[in-house]
Each structure stands twice: as C-alpha cells, then as structure tokens.
Write a structure and sequence with these properties.
By secondary structure, the chain is of the alpha/beta class. It has 2 domains: 1-79 and 174-257, Rossmann fold (3-Layer(aba) Sandwich); 87-171, 3-Layer(aba) Sandwich (Rossmann fold). It is 39% helix and 25% strand. The chain has 10 helices and 10 strands. It has helices at residues 43-50, 79-85, 102-115, 120-125, 127-140, 156-168, 186-202, 214-220, 238-242, 245-252; strands at 3-14, 17-28, 33-36, 58-64, 71-73, 87-89, 174-178, 206-210, 223-228, 231-236. The strands form 2 sheets. It has a 6-stranded mixed beta sheet with strand order 6-7-8-3-9-10, sandwiched between helices. Strands 2-1-4-5 form a 4-stranded antiparallel beta sheet, covered by helices on one side. A hairpin with a 2-residue loop joins strand 1 (3-14) and strand 2. Helix 3 (102-115) crosses helix 5 (127-140) and helix 3 packs parallel to helix 6 (156-168). The radius of gyration is 18 Å and the shape is globular. Bound molecules: adenosine-5'-triphosphate. Keywords: Amino-acid transport, ATP-binding, Nucleotide-binding, Transport. Probable component of a branched-chain amino-acid transport system. This is Probable branched-chain amino acid transport ATP-binding protein LivG. Belongs to the ABC transporter superfamily.
Length: 257
Amino acid sequence: MTTVLKTEDLRKQFGELTAVDDVSIEIDDSEITSIIGPNGAGKTTFYNLLTGVLRPTSGSIWLRDDGEGGLADITDAEPHEVAQAGLSRSYQITNIFEGLTVRENVRVARISHEGTRLDFRSRAAGDEALEVDIEELLELTGLTDIADTPCDTLSHGEKRTVEIALALAIEPDVFLMDEPTAGMNPTEVTEIVSLIRELDADLDATFVVTEHNMDVVTDISDRIVVLAEGAILADGTPEDVLTDDRVTEAYLGSDSV
Ligand SMILES: Nc1ncnc2c1ncn2[C@@H]1O[C@H](COP(=O)(O)OP(=O)(O)OP(=O)(O)O)[C@@H](O)[C@H]1O
C-alpha cells in the first residue's frame, strides 16, 4: 500500500462560501476510490484544485514522485504541469478533435505528451515505438475496431471511451475519472464498468472516480469518500459508507444524488 495522492487541509473559498472545507485525504494505489456527494458537495471544485485548474485558498496537494520515491508538492502547479507529473483527468469529450479519427486523436494526445519530454531528434527516432504505443492503447481500451472512424460519427459511449484513451495517453500514475457513465445507456454503463475494472487490473495507474450512479459506485469502489458541504462526511468500504445514516441524511437533504 503506497500513497499516490494526498491533500492536507485543502480549502477553497468563493467569497463567503466554503466549497472545499479543509479536506485531508490519502489515496492508496491498491484501491479504486470513489468520491461522491450530493449536488453542490464540492466534488468538481475538489477535482479542479487537484488538477491545477483552481488555486486553493489554503492547504496543500502532494503527488507520488517517481524520481524520489516520495511525494512531490504540486499545490502551485499549472494544469499541464500536473498532467506531466502524472495526474490525468478525463474531460468529458471536450478535448476530442471531432474531425479526426480515433487513432489520430490518440496519436495527437500521445505526441503532445512525448513532445513535452523529448527533443525533436529523439522523438523522430521513437516514431516506431510511438505507433506501437498507440496500437497498445487502442487495444487496451477496446477501440481497435473503430480506430479509423472519425470521432464525429461515434456514439456517446464510444466518445467517452476515446476520452479515457486520451487521458491514459500520458501514462498517468493517478487517473481522475469525472462521471464516467454520465449520459450513457444501460448497455454502455455495463461496458464502461468492465473496461474500468480491466484497466485497473492491467495498468499501474490508480483510479479515482466521481460518479452519480450509485450502482456503479457500489460495483467498482474499494473505498468511498463522501463529501457534504465541502467536508468529508464518511470514508470507508462501500458496505460501511452506504449504510451510514449520516450519508443517507445528506442525500435526502439534497434535491438529487
Ligand atoms: N466559480 C464558482 N464561484 C462561486 N461558487 C462556486 C463556484 N464553483 C462552485 N461554486 C459553489 O461551490 C459549491 C460546490 O460546487 P461543486 O460544483 O464543486 O459541487 P459538486 O459536488 O461538483 O456538485 P454537482 O454534483 O452538482 O456537480 C456549490 O455551492 C457551488 O455553487
């Protein structure tokens, strides 16, 4: 068990409103952790803090540092620096190039990741390896059969899977999945859940999921963290958390799950 991501007293104020209220959490690499909570609980703000999209009012964020074997402080990192440090997030289709095929999208994501690491000459030498990486990624995410399909003709579920492939193209240590089943039909939900399981088994990446579909949360999580009014209300196994009266109350007190 190794901590891959940690926050210490992480806080975000919007004026008088405390959206994230001194959250301290350690994410372990051996577990799929779901972060759930009623509407307005602070999940999106928490993700935005982790990925450098928002600056915290106070507190700190730490990510596993491969070079040092410890944790690196990424509190002040910009989004691209956070991604480069190994924290990837699925962006709900918004970063797919609709006019390109699935393979071309994966290639662009992969090259832009490589491009931040390698100079031009070593990148050219690595072209063959790049193509192998792309095919592996397509295979891993079950996209090989539709690799040559333009993305603007894909179903919603297929686009969400492409988005997962793009997030994985940066070889993350930690993968934040933002409502992976949102907008999906029941068949697509079943498929994406088994894909998440397979990826978790096949990859070194640690999965952290926010999700409104409670069946999915129960199904894939080893650990559930419940946020309510910006603070951690409950933290434990699905059995413990989903039978916790305080969690039921928090959800009943909101207009929706
Ligand atoms: N940019 C902002 N300026 C002011 N208030 C904000 C801003 N972003 C979020 N909030 C407020 O912070 C609180 C937490 O919002 P957030 O979107 O993080 O919750 P959430 O758990 O992701 O909700 P949902 O499940 O509905 O997406 C809410 O009260 C929201 O209105």
